[in-house]
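step: validate -> pass
step: tokenize input -> pass
step: predict -> running
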Amino acid sequence: MNITAKNLLGDFITLLTKPVELRWAPFENIDLSRFKFGTFYLYSSKNGIEWTRETQVNPFIPGDITVEASHLTYFAIMGERKDIIPPVTAAELEGERGDGNWFRGDVSLAINATDSADEDSAGVDYILYKIEGEDWKTYTGPLGFTSEGHYKVSSYSVDKDGNIEDVKTIEFDIDKTSPTVSATPDRTPDANDWYSAPVTITFVGQ
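step: predict -> pass
step: emit ->
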């Protein structure tokens, strides 16, 4: 809430000779159950960025919240949330795996998120993912990858209290093509494609 007042000359008034009463209507449309009891205070700010704690208030009591202030600036009522821990996301790859994160066939990527095990955790709200080169999307189920190539997938989750997890990234490759081997002798064969003396054969794999 931003409160301003002007004198007869039109100049803004910031300091008052007498305290004024500020009144807030009941917080009817806000879920206060996600906040810790006894942590609500009136804060003021001259610039809307740096805040100073003024006095404790209790929005859990029915009726208006009334406080006195000796200046007119920015005012806000703030409380401490019960859950301040972001959820944790884990990505799981499934498919015919080779070495490391190489796969010989199609790959399925599942992204799962869990919130804090604390009894006051808000629960996971949603998961976002991004395949390299594409936009962020809401995760709704396992992702399928069928084409050969290198993949990089980023993801993070947000809980119902607005706690945001740091972005995590997983990379993997799909290679469905079997290698080939070619054999080359060091000289041409003798009569009837037979060798009458030892021959050296060089094998090259691709």
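step: describe -> The chain has a mean pLDDT of 84.
step: cleanup -> pass
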